[in-house]
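User: structure tokens for this one?
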Amino acid sequence: MSAKQNPTPRPDMLQPHRAGDIEPFPGGKVVYLSPAPLPTGAPPLDFNQAIGEVNDAYLDFGGSLPTPFTWQFTLGIPFIGFLMLVFVIPMLGGGLMWIIGKDIALFYAGIAGLFNEVFAQAVVFSTLVLLLALVIKTHYHFRFREAVPTRFHRQRREVAFAPGDGNPPIIVPWESVAAWVTQAQGVTQYGVQRQYGLGIGFIEPETGQQHFIELSQPGMPLALGLWEAVRAYMEYEVNTREELQDPHGLHRPGDPPYEGVHTFHNARRRLHRRYREGDIGLFAVTMWYLWHILDLWTIPFHLAEWEISVIQKAGQKTLPASLDQWSQPLSEEQWAKPSAELTRLSAEVRQRHAQQPNRPITAIFAEVYAEETTLSA
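Assistant:
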């Protein structure tokens, strides 16, 4: 059972914001990365594969496919918990009895007694955890099927959002899109828990209504990396999905564009190659094999492929057909150009970040904007 997390507040985009602004709230803060979308210096990385299709014209944010990691977590946690209960606890108990009684017979007696005592309870407990994990996995499975992507068209430098409920899609300029990272922490019965999330939002031009996309993230670097993946794509700094989701080169020519059994075998071949070349030692190889044995080897990868096939047969939600013409690539002469302000500020941010790489990027954003205001005053 997980602790209940308090929802983090959404920023009010009707109030003017810009990259580098920080809004505190009880238990956390909101850190703005855009507008304007300045370079963060973070590696562009889509760790949770929130990005779907990527081509020369557009990137779909959301509407991605499940990964083997979700199945590794779903199956691995109950299995590892079962092993801990029926093997590790009896071993520790037997060892303690041996130390206290100074008799090796007590060691074996302790192991046998504790194993018989906890085995049935371990089966029940692990089964319940597995059922709970499967319920959660099923919930997210249907979210994958229902998710409608937000499309970032870099040649037009525009973003299309489908609000749903039969409403027409909303198209806004790329440089007007707000992005922020939320950091929050709270105390629960499980201790201090930290939450991170990446938010993207904009205001509908005709109605002034605010729209939000929010994704929870494991940590601040991954939240920054996901936003940087979108920003770098829009500025032609990265061009393929593999650059964002496959930094270790686990896809080979001809492989399907998702993670599956092929990525497992590619990872194992890469591991052996790095060991032969002396990049890693025997300990790293052993830990790789131990981890994958504990999370049931290739079973999660087969299940991920099966789930992806189910989603593809059912048909994922897509953006409305009215956006088909808007989504088409343009001739290079028609490509929209970045504003002079964004180009100038981005160059200044990169220069200062290169000079002070350990300084928080938001502090550099704020400093550049402060000087910009001073010069224009």
